[in-house]
Write a structure and sequence with these properties.
heterodimer; A: 537 residues; alpha+beta; 16 helices; 36% helix; elongated; B: alpha+beta; 4-stranded antiparallel beta sheet; 7 helices; Helix-turn-helix transcriptional regulator (chain A); DNA binding (chain A); Cro/C1-type_HTH (chain A)
């Protein structure tokens, strides 16, 4: 009965599908043998993209599935053998046996055995082995081979197989990729990753940001063979170009370009070579008119790094534009022509617009205007709001000099912690000279931002005003507020301000007593004659 | 807008030609005597500058100050004062000589041994243009490496040559350079 014969043949041909390793492992196995996708594809007589599809999750079927399973099995065995070799020569046979035991060895066991058994090259008794008349490409390395095993042309000696085209990988056992991890080597390494930043067309580690200040100081010290005074003098000379270089460095990758030479309105231009422009910076110069009767111990406090802190202010980015009208846009900054409000608290708090003699409208800067608006607000209610007549403003940001400021502040803090006078003086020269040469200075021709110069100075004065207000608010008596950074108070100021050399702290410049007879005079006895001389403004 | 503008300002844009802004900035860098020539102090300063050496006197003569030595002496001593026409002559001669004297130094400063100087180009003012006709014209910067032609044309007070020299640099801004033919300001420092 031919029918039954056909059924028997069908049953005989229906075999269990070969088991393939998971998709992620397949690629690792192929790459572990240094085989390219086209090489394997050619050997299996499929297209390289098909192999790519198998490696990314699809499964082949039919005859080609068995071929692929055979390849993967062989590759796994070969890699395991290499690993075992690399790990140690001892117990070589055992580990190979283990590998074989691990291998899924129902149908292909003997074929795999024939393939990877370097120990027994004379496998002539194997019934599947044939000698090819015309060399065909080896399924494993793609080079011509003279033997075929179970219909697959291949080299019998693994050394021969790896030798010709592709050198055998001599990787140590540890770096043979573990199949499951090798697919995405960097995906799950969030914690110990390297932070990178863009650097031109490349990237570089973020930690490798060069510390320009430290490098300049080290170089200067090395150049002058450790002579501190000579190194300091040399550093002070190059403070301005160095500050500009640091500014450029900190603006790298920033959102806004620094506009260095904008057109400036006439109010920001000097009227004559030695004259001033029309902007009023609101520098405080205030002395309390009278003290209550009795003897008062006055402490002159000095704000550390006042201009350094003032670098954080709303700075106009681009060219200033004119506008008229009594409205203030908080997203813009510049200079404003205002009529200042009356100030009725001159007996115990300085006027926020400083010691102005002339009445009438005046050009003030953004920090002064914001100070006045804040004081006029519901929280303080100390004065009427100022009347704005016209403004020259531009879109503003507080972040323009922020990285620059933080770099300088960090260097300053480190220098104080290390007691490094050279760096301290250098940093101080950098920010002080930067602020003083921002405008039309011949010493710094890279930046002509007179508006920024006024704004930064005014911010320092506004900061001092707030310190005076805080002292007043906490119950101290403010005696004087003057210059950029000097505040004279009576009472227990240590409860209000921290003493130290950091930028948020204050230090004592002088202490003196004022006599019993009312009006303030410096004729009183000095308790501590100028305890600290340094002025870090 | 790859080419020069034909009718600039038709829709209300404001600005000056780029080369005029460059000349203005170069003038600022040249550092003229600030006091006007109409004041005695300014006149004396200019005359001193023009008569200090034989070389200066020859340069002043070449620049058009063709008065006799006797007249010059009289102006310097104050026995006579120049007419308004002659004041203009003095001013023009002074500016010409000053530019010529400064040009070489200024060129060297601006070329910076081939590294050039960064120039900021502030675009034209569109605030008076109708909203639909306004265009986005950005602030641009440009590194100009060769200043010789620009400064030479400025020193010779040759508007046309200066314009050509400047446009030759501005075309490096790309196909949109025509937007920067007119500007509000050109900023650079030497």
């Amino acid at each position: 009965m031919t029918d039954f014969g056909a059924i028997d043949a069908l049953l005989a041909s229906a075999r269990q599908e070969a088991v393939l390793p998971p998709a992620g492992e397949r690629r690792a196995l192929r790459e572990g043998l240094n085989l390219s996708r086209p090489q394997l594809a050619q050997a299996l007589n499929v297209s390289p993209s098909t192999v790519g599809g198998w490696e990314s999750g699809r499964d082949p079927s039919g005859e080609v599935r068995e071929k692929y399973a055979y390849f993967l099995e062989g590759a796994k065995a070969k890699l395991a053998a290499e690993t075992a070799d690399a790990v140690g020569d001892a117990g070589d046979e055992e580990s190979q046996d283990e590998v074989r035991a691990d291998a899924d060895a129902d149908a292909d066991a003997d074929a795999a055995d024939a393939f990877h058994s370097a120990a027994e090259p004379e496998a002539g008794q194997d019934d599947d082995l044939d000698v090819l008349a015309v060399p065909q490409p080896c399924v494993l390395c793609g080079q011509p081979a003279c033997h075929q095993v179970a219909g697959f042309p291949q080299h019998l000696d693994p050394a021969e197989c790896a030798a010709p085209g592709s050198p055998r990988p001599t990787v140590p056992a540890a770096s043979v990729p573990a199949p499951s991890e090798s697919a995405r080597p960097s995906a799950d390494r969030g914690g110990q990753g390297v932070r990178i930043v863009a650097a031109g067309r490349r990237v570089r580690p973020a930690d490798a940001e060069p510390d320009l200040i430290h490098r300049a100081v080290t170089e200067a010290l090395a150049q002058h063979a450790g002579d501190v005074e000579a190194a300091s003098a040399a550093l002070l000379k190059r403070a301005i170009p160095d500050a500009m270089a640091l500014l450029d460095h900190t603006r790298r990758g920033g959102r806004y370009d620094i506009v260095a030479h904008p057109w400036l309105p006439d109010i920001l231009r000097k009227q004559s070579a030695r004259g001033a422009d029309q902007v009023w910076e609101a520098r405080p110069k205030w002395t309390r008119p009278e003290l209550p009767p009795g003897e008062h111990a006055v402490t002159a406090l000095d704000v550390n790094g006042a201009y350094l802190s003032a670098l954080k202010t709303h700075l106009p980015i681009g060219q200033l534009e004119h506008s008229v009208g009594d409205d203030h846009d908080r997203r813009r900054a510049g200079v404003h022509l205002i009529t200042p409000p009356d100030w009725e608290h001159d007996a115990y708090l300085p006027n926020p617009i400083g010691n102005r003699d002339e009445p009438g409208p005046l050009w003030v800067t953004e920090p002064t205007l914001r100070l006045l608006l804040r004081l006029a607000g519901p929280k303080y209610g100390l004065c009427d709001p100022p009347r704005i007549h016209e403004s020259w403003t531009s879109g503003a940001t507080e972040q323009l000099l922020e990285k620059f400021r933080v770099a300088l502040k960090d260097a300053r803090d480190r220098a104080i912690a290390d007691d490094d006078e050279v760096t301290l003086e250098y940093v101080k020269a950098m920010y002080a000279k930067f602020v003083s040469t921002l405008g039309e200075s011949n010493y710094n021709r890279e930046l002509y931002r007179t508006d920024w110069m006024h704004l930064i100075r005014s911010q320092a004065f506004a900061n001092l005003w707030w310190k005076a207000h805080r002292a007043y608010d906490e119950g101290l008596m403010v005696v004087r507020a003057m210059g950029t950074d000097e505040l004279h108070v009576t009472g227990d100021w240590r409860a209000v301000f921290a003493e130290g050399r950091g930028v948020t702290e204050v230090k004592v410049k002088d202490t003196y007593t004022v006599g019993t007879d009312g009006p303030l005079s410096r004729a009183g006895t000095v308790i501590h004659p100028s305890s600290t001389g340094r002025d870090d403004a | 807008m790859p080419e020069r503008n034909i009718e600039f300002g038709r829709y209300g844009a404001g600005g000056i030609k780029g080369h005029q802004a460059v000349a203005r900035q170069l003038d600022a860098l040249a550092g003229y005597i600030a006091t006007p020539v109409t004041a005695r102090r300014g006149l004396l300063a200019r005359l001193h500058y023009l008569t200090r050496t034989d070389h200066a006197r020859a340069a002043a003569r070449a620049a058009g100050l063709t008065v006799t030595a006797r007249t010059l002496r009289a102006w310097l001593q104050g026995t006579r004062s120049p007419s308004r026409k002659n004041l203009e002559l003095v001013e023009r001669a002074y500016r010409t000589v000053r530019r010529e004297n400064v040009a070489r130094h200024l060129t060297a400063r601006l070329n910076r041994e081939g590294r050039g100087t960064r120039v900021e180009i502030h675009p034209l003012n569109q605030s008076q243009v109708d909203r639909p006709r306004q265009r986005v014209v950005e602030f641009r910067t440009l590194n100009v490496r060769r200043w010789d032609r620009i400064v030479a044309a400025w020193a010779a007070d040759d508007d046309r040559a200066l314009d050509d020299a400047w446009i030759d640099q501005v075309v490096d801004l790309g196909s949109q350079w025509g937007q920067y033919e007119y500007v509000t300001n050109v900023g650079f420092a030497a």
